Amino acid sequence: MTSTDPELAFPFVGGRPCLDFVATLGKRHATPKERLPDTAALARWLTEAELTVGEEPVRVTARDLADARVLREALYRVVRAAMAGREPAAADVELVNQAAAKPDLAPQLGEVRWAARQPSRAALATVARDAVLLTGGPLRERVKECENPDCSLLFLDDSQARRRRWCSMDRCGNLAKVAGYRSRSRAASTRAGSVH
Length: 196
Description:
Elements: H1 17-22, E1 25-26, E2 33-34, H2 39-48, H3 62-84, H4 90-101, E3 106-107, E4 114-115, H5 119-135, E5 143-145, E6 154-156, H6 169-195
């Protein structure tokens, strides 16, 4: 149940559900890429994020989708404010707190991982609570933005030295390595050509 368009594939590299949810809008610094264009995409994200109840696909309404996008952007602004060490906008705090106050997914032992009366809303409440815990705790200092200028993904730097620069080595880290290698090769060729 994955997208055939690689641009619409969900990156799960944030290290936290709230950061992975924020990544459903990609390329924020360029032409934004909406990875939740419809209710089916949100249902797919919830499934791939393992925030669904049972084996049945989660039912998502148009209102759920609209609310999810509004919540996502409020989460993004709250996380960015925390990263910058400033207070987030009161409206964003209120929106995130309202979402986090709703009944969230209840963890279950056994084959069914979660339980909820309204699975899609409960999953979004779980994501909002994750953001509250992240931005209100000591881990907020480890949230970084990928250093690839074409990427806007946020991630939790859980590396031992706290020097992680890329959202993922598979995504942006390898691109940077290849670009650096090519740049050094061109510079070496230019120097070798000017010696003659």
